[in-house]
Write a structure and sequence with these properties.
Layout: H1 5-11, E1 18-21, E2 25-29, E3 39-43, H2 55-76, E4 80-84, E5 100-105, H3 122-133
Antiparallel strand pairs: 1-2, 2-3, 3-5, 4-5
Helix pairs in contact: 2-3
Bound molecules: adenosine monophosphate and zinc ion.
Length: 134
């Protein structure tokens, strides 16, 4: 879809630190991470939100999120994971291409939800992405 940032990432027109991909989905690093390893899982086919995505793509996103969550534990040492979807502006959705946030949690980390997005350190984001992708 024209003017959609995440469609641009799927197409390869917008740079992203991809960590995993399958036939229906892509997982990549969030550039404003809530914690180390914060990733997003999206369907390759554009859907605005939770209410518009096809059941097949939703299932594929859930399975990819499970895979990334397992990686967060194995590769980054996460103690837990929050899986979050925001559907609609009043639920904090800001990018209107369906996505699941996979947020690794660490014992005693200071994260309060909702987090206040702030620019991350690109080298650190890349390093965490590489650990998840390996
Ligand atoms: P939401 O507010 O739930 O719609 O989440 C959108 C998320 O997309 C935010 O956490 C942003 O940091 C993230 N985001 C926006 N643009 C990009 C981008 N180009 N690459 C990676 N993450 C992005
Ligand atoms: Zn899109």
């Amino acid at each position: 879809m024209a003017d959609c940032i995440f469609c641009g990432i799927v197409a390869g027109d917008i740079p992203a630190t991809k960590v995993a991909e399958d036939e229906r989905t892509v997982a990549f690093m969030d550039i404003n991470p809530a914690t180390r390893g914060h990733a997003l899982v999206i369907p390759k086919r554009h859907a605005t939100d939770l209410l518009e995505i096809s059941p097949e793509d939703l299932a594929a996103c859930a399975q990819m999120a499970q895979r990334v969550a397992q990686k967060a534990k194995d590769a980054l040492g996460a103690d837990g994971v929050n899986l979050i979807n925001s559907c609609g502006p009043d639920a904090w959705q800001t990018v209107f291409h369906f996505h699941l946030h996979v947020i690794p949690r660490y014992k005693g980390d200071p994260l309060k939800l909702p987090w206040v997005p702030g620019p991350g350190d690109m080298d650190e984001i890349k390093a965490a992405g590489e650990a998840l992708a390996a």
